[in-house]
Amino acid sequence: MxxxxxxTSPRKRAGNGAARRIDADEIGLDALVGHAGYAVRRFQIWxxxxxxxxxxxxxxxxxxxxxxxxxxxxPGLSQMAVAKRLGxxxxxxxxxxxxxxxxxxxxxxxxxxxxxxxxxHLTAQGETALAKFKRLAAEHERHxxxxxxxxxxxxxxxxxxxFT
Amino acid sequence: MxxxxxxTSPRKRAGNGAARRIDADEIGLDALVGHAGYAVRRFQIWxxxxxxxxxxxxxxxxxxxxxxxxxxxxPGLSQMAVAKRLGxxxxxxxxxxxxxxxxxxxxxxxxxxxxxxxxxHLTAQGETALAKFKRLAAEHERHxxxxxxxxxxxxxxxxxxxFT
DNA sequence: GACAATTGTTGTCGTCAACAACAATCTTCC
DNA sequence: GGAAGATTGTTGTTGACGACAACAATTGTC
Lengths: 164, 164
What we know:
The structure is a homodimer of 164-residue chains.
Chain A: H1 36-54, H2 62-73, H3 79-86, H4 90-102, E1 106-110, E2 118-122, H5 124-148, H6 150-159
Antiparallel strand pairs in A: 1-2
Chain A binds a DNA duplex (30 and 30 nucleotides) through helix 4.
């Protein structure tokens, strides 16, 4: 194997084979530490995992929660309107609604104004379920607060308000 | 329960059929606005899209960039070490490295200390390529700065430093 | 009334996280 | 020294998700 001595100032010389045991926490991230995307990605993974876990007992995932919340606050919306507002593909929303409708949380009602579209509503069961989901989601949000701090969380929300 | 969410339009009234045309920007997000996860998710999608676009000419995606950067800064690491450090499944890293090795950016060298593991190194071609990737990634980072503001970006990095 | 646009739907493709199982190889412990 | 257990890389599957393309039904426009 060509050793190909690397000259570009690495922090740890290792000729070609492995050198020694390296603890995970002494591995440098180099340029990654300056990239917002990397930090945001890791944070987002953490946050989703906590959300999924916290709402595990009711088996609701973040996307499902967002769809239910928007329908609950805006009854009668079309699928297209929900998809646009939440940045979800309308093709994907079809499956999401199939699942939620099967669980009797949502119903699609044929619109009489535009017979192409469906008016989306929560069922009575969906309303009470959503109330519980919101309580659990609030609990999840407290976990976030504990993780990054109350002030930081609020600042985060403010910084990213433009993306909602 | 919290049925009346948006105050902006008092009568949403949609008994069962559809009501009226609703503009996308007047749909209330209700509880979602208070969830950091929602904002973070939307932001992360935006940031990845810009990254993929900005590094489109070299066909490098965020995860590939992170792997190359870490290997470049820590030559000789095992796949397990890289996977742990970046929070990637080791099963997934296999395919990532297959691709990068096929493109002659990375090579796997059999470790002599532990014959189970591979020592990961950039090729000479990989080193020069990574330098270019870093320039493009820096350009992407400037896009982020333009989007949310210089001070906000730095504050974001600081808030989320614990997740890197 | 003809033609373009929209809505919901179905389907495919590729990325990604999460598991499970396996062979080869270390490590530990008796 | 050797059996038992853990680790490393690999292969495979599953499911959520974003992106696209095509289609029928319906609406809007000219």
